Amino acid sequence: QVQLVESGGGLVQAGGSLRLSCAASGRTFSSGAVGWFRQAPGKIREFVAVITLITARAGTTYYADSVKGRFTISRDNTENTVYLQMNSLKPEDTAVYYCAASRYASPGRGPGAYDYWGQGTQVTVSS
Fold first, then answer.
1. Which residues lie closer than 8 Å to 38 by C-beta, 6 or more apart?
2. pLDDT tens for residues 5-32?
3. Rounded CA gap, 56 and 107, in Å?
4. Cα dist. 119→96, 98, 122 in Å?
5. For residue 75, which of 85, 65, 67 has the smallest C-alpha distance?
6. Terminal C-alpha separation, the chain
7. What is the largest CA-CA distance in the chain?
8. Which of 115, 121, 112 is nearest to 20 (CA)?
9. How far is the C-alpha of 75 from the C-alpha of 84, rounded, in Å?
10. pLDDT tens digits, 28-47
11. Number of Cβ atoms within 10 Å of the Cβ of 42
């Protein structure tokens, strides 16, 4: 089992920044990658970013086109924490943000490839 806890959400004005954290505990060594997803009211959960944790490709990142160049995913192995730095935020970034761990090193953007999920943290961007 892997437990994930997100933090860092809040209310910010358009153009501002937030940094989300995803703290992992439990069998973290079994995770091949950690991703971030978001879900806005009335919409399906969508992929945001993913980072590979293991293998020779550790540190490889992949982003949704909608956040590329504005968001950065990173990891701190010593703290078992994955971060999502969000800059130049837009009102359309408003959503509940979830981190998720996958046993696969390259799980891609589909939520079904992820095994464990956090409880989510609310991000609200005002115009």
1. 45, 46, 48, 93, 95, 96, 97, 98, 123
2. 999 999 999 999 999 999 998 877 668 8
3. 16
4. 9, 7, 10
5. 85
6. 40
7. 42
8. 121
9. 9
10. 766 889 999 999 999 999 99
11. 5
